[in-house]
């Protein structure tokens, strides 16, 4: 089913501000001409930013509010003022059906709390999960979830994450049968916590799902491309994600330092520039910007707070793709098949 993508954008959230959020939306619309937008925030500032993007202005409505969720706001504080903030009103547009999805670069905890309260979880889902695509050495990116929405997870949570992650991989990457693995401290069946081992047993026993459960995967194999979906609790997943991001920055900074250390190094940099540019592109987090909350009755994406216009555009484009391919319906259907298979 093809859906017309209209996206609500929290124009005030994150480190980037109105100007970059509008520039990213405009960049996305140049690639995807059918996109329409609801920009939520300070109307004066939004209109000023739109002056530089006539193509975006023609496809945009504005919802004015002075209220903003700050990075210091606790989820409980954000919930109390949800109906008066740009983040809360963007999510509410999805709830009302005025937008097919919402994008925010703001406070992750607040965004999760607001989205869960407003949109509710799907039938068969105990907790939503935060999922993102990360680059690998293989032919496809890898879906990792949960990345911080749930610090403690039982076996049922992990199996639900696996089903949702596989549906996301089929939608976002076009894979017919995604390879799914559980993050663990070893690949042997006896390794790991009871929750991880029980989840593995449940996934091995599941029948008829459009995915292949491959068992356990260790942390040093996350970026190899051996699997398409990696499942873990939010505590482990957030640490893994931050470690990957930190390693990417370490490698780029180390190369920069090495190539500027001497005249010979600078000459070597000029010779190897095509290869280093390819590496920089592969490690640039803006090329994989956009984490989606799976398990909600609606599409909500979290953009990195420091993303540039290209990063925001990639997040918006991913949101549009998930709306068009009806990710909510696909996840709901897979969960129903999983429950029916268990019952059989």
| CATH level-1 class of the largest domain | Alpha Beta
Structural class assignment = alpha/beta
- Give the helix tally: 12
Low-pLDDT stretches are: none
Beta-strand residue fraction: 15-25%
Oligomer: single chain
| SSE string | EHEHHEHHEHEEHEHEEHHEEHH
Mean pLDDT: 87
What's the CATH topology name of the largest domain? Isopropylmalate Dehydrogenase
What can you see in these coordinates?
With 344 residues, this protein is of the alpha/beta class. The protein has 2 domains: 1-121 and 295-325, Isopropylmalate Dehydrogenase (3-Layer(aba) Sandwich); 126-292, Isopropylmalate Dehydrogenase. The protein is built from 12 helices and 11 strands. The protein starts with 5 loop residues before the first strand and ends with a helix. Keywords: Acyltransferase, Cytoplasm, Lipid biosynthesis, Lipid metabolism, Phospholipid biosynthesis, Phospholipid metabolism, Transferase. Pfam families: FA_synthesis. It is found in: Cytoplasm.
Secondary structure blueprint with pairings:
Elements: E1 6-10, H1 17-31, E2 36-41, H2 43-50, H3 54-57, E3 60-64, H4 75-80, H5 86-96, E4 101-104, H6 108-119, E5 129-134, E6 142-145, H7 155-173, E7 179-183, H8 194-205, E8 212-217, E9 229-231, H9 234-259, H10 263-283, E10 291-294, E11 299-302, H11 309-324, H12 327-343
Parallel strand pairs: 1-2, 1-4, 2-3, 4-11, 6-9, 7-8, 7-9
Antiparallel strand pairs: 5-6, 5-10, 10-11
């Amino acid at each position: 089913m093809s859906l017309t993508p209209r996206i609500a954008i929290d124009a005030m959230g994150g480190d980037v501000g109105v100007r970059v959020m509008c520039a990213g939306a405009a960049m996305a619309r140049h690639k995807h001409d059918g996109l329409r937008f609801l920009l939520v925030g300070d109307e004066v500032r939004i209109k000023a930013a739109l002056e530089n993007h006539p193509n975006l202005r023609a496809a945009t409505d504005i919802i004015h509010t002075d209220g903003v969720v700050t990075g210091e706001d606790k989820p409980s504080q954000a919930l109390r003022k949800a109906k008066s903030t740009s983040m809360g009103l963007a999510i509410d547009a999805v709830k009302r059906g005025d937008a097919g999805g919402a994008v925010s670069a703001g406070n992750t905890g607040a965004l999760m709390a607001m989205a869960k309260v407003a949109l509710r979880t799907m039938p068969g889902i105990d907790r939503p999960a935060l999922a993102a695509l990360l680059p690998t050495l293989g032919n496809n990116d890898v879906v990792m979830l949960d990345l911080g929405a749930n610090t403690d997870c039982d076996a049922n949570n992990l199996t639900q994450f696996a089903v949702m992650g596989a549906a996301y991989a089929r939608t976002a990457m076009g894979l017919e049968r995604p390879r799914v693995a559980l993050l663990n401290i070893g690949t042997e069946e006896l390794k790991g916590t009871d929750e991880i081992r029980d989840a593995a047993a449940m996934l091995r026993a599941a029948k008829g799902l459009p995915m292949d459960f491959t068992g356990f995967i260790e942390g040093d194999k996350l970026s190899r491309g051996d699997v398409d979906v990696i499942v873990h609790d939010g505590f482990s997943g957030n640490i893994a994600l931050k470690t990957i991001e930190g390693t990417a920055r370490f490698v780029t900074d180390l190369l920069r330092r090495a190539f500027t250390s001497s005249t010979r190094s600078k000459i070597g940099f000029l010779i190897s520039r095509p290869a280093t540019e390819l590496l920089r592109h592969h490690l640039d987090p803006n090329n994989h910007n956009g984490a989606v909350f799976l398990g909600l009755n609606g599409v909500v994406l979290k953009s990195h707070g420091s993303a540039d216009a290209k990063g925001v555009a990639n997040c918006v484009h991913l949101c549009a793709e998930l709306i068009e391919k009806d990710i909510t319906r696909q996840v709901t259907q897979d969960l129903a098949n999983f429950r029916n298979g268990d019952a059989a």
